[in-house]
Design goal:
151 residues; mainly alpha; 8 helices
């Protein structure tokens, strides 16, 4: 038995006028949860400066967040992104199993990370939100700019 068609996002129904023709559908979605914040920083377990695994996970987190289309990830997606990072870590370290590849493909697709799935993702345009980088790198960059300035 098949799964059927994926559920159409509410925003797409609003844009296409479906709710004008079928107000009962809008009423059914009236209490739909709406994420209220940006993705935020990486998980604390990714920030250990002593763990090579944590450093690799942080790098993957930053890569993924940089590549996802702006406006897609919100605070409600944190665990989703963390899982994708952990699976990608397994892939990059030759420890992935067949199911890991499949699950990673699904997770990345839901974030619009391939051409076919990107066409299904609808977002409200906003300014891009990037995960914070290492604050010490910012300090080093500021200091190197200061050194090059004439007195």
């Amino acid at each position: 038995m098949g799964k059927g068609r994926p559920r159409k996002p509410t925003a797409l129904h609003e844009l296409s006028g479906t709710f004008d023709r079928h107000p009962e559908r809008k009423k059914e979605r009236a209490n739909e949860p709406k994420p209220d914040g940006p993705l935020g920083p990486p998980p604390a377990s990714f920030l250990s400066e002593y763990s090579p695994t944590a450093k690799a996970l942080l790098q993957i987190w930053n890569e993924l967040v940089e590549q996802v289309p702006p406006g897609v990830l919100t605070s409600a997606d944190r665990w989703h992104v963390e899982l994708a990072c952990r699976l990608m870590y397994r892939v990059r370290n030759d420890r992935a199993k067949a199911g890991d590849y499949s699950r990673l493909d699904v997770l990345l697709g839901k974030m619009g990370m391939n051409p076919a799935d990107r066409s299904k993702v609808n977002v409200v345009p906003t300014a891009p939100v990037h995960a914070p980088t290492n604050p010490f790198i910012d300090l080093v960059n500021e200091e190197s700019e200061e050194v090059g300035k004439p007195n």
